[in-house]
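We modelled the chain as a single entity of 166 amino acids. Its sequence is:
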Amino acid sequence: MASKAKADSGAGATTTARASAAAADRAADAAQGVHQSARHLERTAGAVQSSADRSTELAADRTLLAFERTYAAWVRTGLASLASGVGARALLARVAPAWFGGFTGSVLILFSAFCFGAAVWRELNPVKSPPVPQTRRLPGWVLIAVNGFLVLVDLVALVGVWVKAG
């Protein structure tokens, strides 16, 4: 009987050892799964970070392009005001005194010069945003040269309005 008890205890130990080995294999498989999951999370986090960085860069580019659209709007308004100022004298010559046509034209032409100056000022002094845009800015000397020429055209038109009005 003692040998039978010894055999039963040996069989139980073998069964326990197998169960322990199976549990250890399952734990190793689970650890491998956790490791793979961690690597996947690292790759995914890197992709999310890259996507966020790219979105920020694109937002900076859109901001820069918005500044340039604002510049174009100021110049467009200035050109319309210049044309209106020159046309005001001719239009008002038949219905109002000559000085009134000259005054109206002068105000519109001076507003045009203001628009050209504001366009350069707004373009050269934008609100700085933290991300650096990848799009290149218009050179400041080009803006100053073009708008300076437009202001000279304004001055010539202003003289023309008063010389012809008198």
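As a brief sanity check on the tokenised model: The chain has a mean pLDDT of 80. The chain has one domain: 2-165.
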